[in-house]
Each structure stands twice: as structure tokens, then as C-alpha cells.
């Protein structure tokens, strides 16, 4: 299949493209990190193998690029991204913070936890931001995302493929979750990461101390407020319905603000390339009809 014919793992008409068309999903990425940190082994894997404290923005950019590649890249690009990630994970080991046992970070249980928390964060953030999604579309999104689960090495049949299955998964995993010291430190770090070191010192100080810092704190607070009530309680915060209401209002307001920004400023190269391929496919279909 030629690259211009290849619409990737999803393509037009998929719920995945509908959901990921929303710039507000940047908040979902932060929400998923708060959630993932509550799994002691997942958190140990990150803390013992990652330089996220030294280069948080670089790590965030690499993760965002990977997600964009799986959503909007060609099939070959998505499969290559998955191959590189599997090879990287295969080399990594960590020690359990309670037992001291060494474990592989690419074990199915950990991969499944990261996958579910990520896709659930995307769909829940989109829904609460005001994206019109039916129950059938939400289930379809989870089923579609099984394709990305295969990229990291999971058997898609072992991955939740509906909202009900995701809820059952969380109920099953919750007894394993804890607020470890590493998770607490990460939670604080995510709320106020330093400005990128690649910037000049005056600009870094301006971002760390100026209005941009307050704006980011608001985004981080919204991401935290979007967590399930049980997750907020594990962090020691109240799981009150009022938090859900305020987070819902905050994410809807942020979506409106981001949607007022010219699209060219929020569209990445992978997205633009996918739209060009989709337009080419539409023109080709019109010529054949």
C-alpha cells in the first residue's frame, strides 16, 4: 500500500480521530500520569529508568509524538514506533519498592495498566470537556485502542474493550494501588515542573515565576480534579462531588479557549499529513464513483 493510500490504524470515521482532534487532550496526558503513578511497580519503573525530572518537557514531547504517531501516522510509522518502544522497554528492569524483587517493566500487567489509564484518560477528558460522545462511541473507542495495545506487545484480547470492561479492570487493580513516596514526589513535580532548560535563563525565570506558571497550575489542578474520586483519595485529597463539578467546568472552559486558537497553531505535522492523505483518499474515491 502506498503511503498516500495509508490512513493508518484508524482513519476518518473512527472515534479515535474524533476524540484526538481535540487540543484539550493535552490535559488528559497529565491526568494519565497522575493515575499511572499510583501503581507502585509502574511508578518504580519510571523513577528507576527515566530522566523525567531532568527533562520533563522532553519526555512529554516524546510521549505526545508517540501517541500522535499511533493515531495519525501511517500503518508503517505506527508499527515502527511500537517496535522501537518494545525494544526500549525490553532492556529495562526495576525493583519493587516493597519487596525489592527485580522485575521487567514490559510485563503484561504493567503494560495493560499504562494502556488503560492512558486511553481512559483520553476518552473521559474528552467527554467531560463537552465532546458529544454516545455510549456506543465510547465503547468503540476502547475497542479501537486495542490496536495501539498490540504495538506495545499486548494481546488485544486481554485488554478492556468497552467502558464496562475498563470499570471492571479498575475494580480489580485498585487493591494493588498505593501512594508511594515516589508517587507523591511525582505528583508534586507534575504540579510545578521547571521551565525547559533549553530556554534562556531570563525566559525560564519568567515562565517559572510569571503568569504562565499560574496558568499551568490551573491546568494541572484541572487534570488532578478529573481523576476518579478513589484516585484523588489515594493522594490524600477529598473525593468530593464538588471537585468533579469544578474540574468539569474547568475542562469545558479550557476546551473553549483552545478551540478559539487558530487551528494551524495546534496542528502538528503528523496530523497535517494524515489530513492530506485523507483528502487524497476522498478525491480518489470521488474519481472512481
UniProtKB/TrEMBL annotation:
<dbReference type="Pfam" id="PF09995">
    <property type="entry name" value="MPAB_Lcp_cat"/>
</dbReference>
<protein>
    <submittedName>
        <fullName>Oxygenase MpaB family protein</fullName>
        <ecNumber>1.-.-.-</ecNumber>
    </submittedName>
</protein>
<keyword id="KW-0560">Oxidoreductase</keyword>
<dbReference type="GO" id="GO:0016491">
    <property type="term" value="F:oxidoreductase activity"/>
</dbReference>
<dbReference type="InterPro" id="IPR018713">
    <property type="entry name" value="MPAB/Lcp_cat_dom"/>
</dbReference>
<feature type="domain" description="ER-bound oxygenase mpaB/mpaB'/Rubber oxygenase catalytic">
    <location>
        <begin position="17"/>
        <end position="244"/>
    </location>
</feature>
Amino acid at each position: 500500500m502506498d503511503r498516500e493510500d495509508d490512513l493508518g490504524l484508524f482513519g476518518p470515521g473512527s472515534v479515535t480521530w474524533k476524540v484526538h482532534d481535540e487540543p484539550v487532550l493535552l490535559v488528559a496526558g497529565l491526568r494519565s500520569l497522575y493515575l499511572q503513578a499510583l501503581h507502585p511497580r509502574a511508578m518504580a519503573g519510571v523513577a528507576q529508568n527515566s530522566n523525567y525530572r531532568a527533562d520533563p518537557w522532553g519526555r512529554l514531547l516524546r510521549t505526545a509524538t508517540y501517541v500522535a504517531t499511533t493515531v495519525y501516522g501511517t500503518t508503517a510509522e505506527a508499527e515502527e514506533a511500537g517496535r522501537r518502544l518494545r525494544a526500549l522497554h525490553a532492556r529495562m528492569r526495576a525493583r519493587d519498592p516493597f519487596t525489592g524483587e527485580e522485575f521487567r517493566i514490559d510485563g503484561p500487567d504493567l503494560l495493560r495498566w499504562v494502556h488503560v489509564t492512558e486511553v481512559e484518560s483520553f476518552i473521559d477528558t474528552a467527554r467531560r470537556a463537552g465532546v458529544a460522545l454516545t455510549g456506543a462511541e465510547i465503547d468503540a473507542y476502547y475497542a479501537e485502542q486495542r490496536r495501539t495495545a498490540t504495538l506495545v506487545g499486548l494481546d488485544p484480547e486481554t485488554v478492556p474493550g468497552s467502558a464496562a470492561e475498563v470499570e471492571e479492570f479498575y475494580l480489580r487493580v485498585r487493591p494493588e494501588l498505593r501512594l508511594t513516596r515516589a508517587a507523591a514526589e511525582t505528583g508534586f513535580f507534575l504540579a510545578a515542573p521547571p521551565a525547559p532548560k533549553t530556554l534562556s535563563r531570563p525566559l525560564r525565570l519568567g515562565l517559572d515565576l510569571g503568569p504562565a506558571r499560574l496558568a499551568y497550575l490551573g491546568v494541572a489542578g484541572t487534570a488532578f480534579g478529573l481523576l476518579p474520586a478513589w484516585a484523588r483519595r489515594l493522594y490524600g485529597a477529598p473525593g468530593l462531588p464538588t471537585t468533579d463539578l469544578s474540574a468539569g467546568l474547568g475542562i469545558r472552559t479550557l476546551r473553549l479557549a483552545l478551540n478559539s486558537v487558530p487551528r494551524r497553531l495546534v496542528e502538528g505535522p503528523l496530523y497535517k499529513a494524515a489530513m492530506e492523505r485523507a483528502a487524497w483518499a476522498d478525491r480518489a474515491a470521488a474519481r472512481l464513483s
